[in-house]
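Objective 1b. Sequence-to-structure analysis of Prephenate dehydrogenase.
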Amino acid sequence: MTHDKPRIGLVGSQGAYGRWLRRFFEERMGLQVLGRDPHGDTTLSERALIEGIDVLIFCAPIRETPAVIRRYVDRAAGIEREQLWLDITSIKAAPVAAMLTSQAEVVGLHPMSAAPKAATLRGRAMVVCEARLHRWRAWLEQFLVASEADCVRADAERHDRVMALVQGMVHATHMAQGAVLRELAPAVGDFDGIRPFSSVGYELDMAVTRRILAGNPAIYQDIQFENPYVAPMLERLAAHLDTLRDLVRSGDDAARDELREKLLTQSRTYVGEQAVAEGSYAFERLGYLLADLHEPRYISVFLPLDRPGSLRTLLSVFEQRGINLDSIHSSRSAEGELLFRIGVARDTHATVLRDAMRAIEHEGIGRVVDAAGVSEAS
Ligand SMILES: NC(=O)c1ccc[n+]([C@@H]2O[C@H](COP(=O)([O-])OP(=O)(O)OC[C@H]3O[C@@H](n4cnc5c(N)ncnc54)[C@H](O)[C@@H]3O)[C@@H](O)[C@H]2O)c1
Ligand SMILES: O=C(O)C(=O)C[C@]1(C(=O)O)C=C[C@@H](O)C=C1
């Protein structure tokens, strides 16, 4: 048993998370990684994979994972006794129960985001379901710290109940929104025609809907079908929408009162004044952020992280040219690089902006990765 430098085995090594985990373990933790995937990584048999590793991680499709795990238990036939088995499936009870039929130590994990572009899970939650953990505890802690995820502990049952709300409900309502738009938007200018009319709420909801439509359909399908707590949640969701429809159809004052009482007042009391106020303020801040991100003139600059004062040097470029700044946001590029996105006043001349961009590059202050409103016509 090697707890210092365990060899990692990935089941589903060619998938989005399998590839991310390989890079994470090799590059961030300096560990050797073996894998198997029926699509593109079949050099090792299932038995040979188990023989070659110390920690086995299942990152296969949700629907198939419990059966895949049971097959690995069968193939292992006891040689897994000293090993740690993990999975990252979005549902926890069935995979964890299947792993517990092995003799390995067992922990279920669920990172609360798609495989990120960044090298770690910084800023993302990860649910940790410790099911049978003894000698591997210290290494697991080391791995969780290296992941930089915000870890939250729960048993598998509670995880699945919570996920019926955090994922099942959110995905269901946005998939339904996508379907309603598909049916009703063509009559009023289609998706693009509606965009200029956006409220902040619509913009945020459409970001979620489009994220779901951009993702792996099997995941959204399986989260609805494989989590036993989703069906009862859908019953409640449908019941409330049915009530709302009936109240709106009836249209009288009693119906208005009932809507207000059941869908606003009671929920407001339940959530509590402070949480309501915090959420409302978070919405406002997101609104300002979206407004800044929609500003037509900006420059996005990658700044080397290891140079104190580099932001001040960058800002001096704008100061020297008399350019007024509307906003500064630090964010991540699609590749995960730290960027500063500088929104500049709309009346800034494009020539002056181009000069600022040249200075940023030529003086080695940073690298301009994106810009808008800098062409002659703008
Ligand atoms: N994508 C996300 O948003 C996300 C987030 C958190 C957790 N997860 C979980 O990660 C797991 C993998 O998700 P993904 O996004 O990498 O999906 P993916 O479809 O990209 O990868 C799944 C991989 O499993 C392989 N596979 C299929 N059948 C297999 C089998 N019988 N044995 C071994 N491998 C098999 C596939 O060939 C594929 O390469 C899922 O359980 C999912 O719930 C995904
Ligand atoms: O697209 C993302 O980044 C997600 O957060 C994906 C998402 C989610 O929508 O809840 C989907 C499945 C995973 O289990 C975790 C997170």
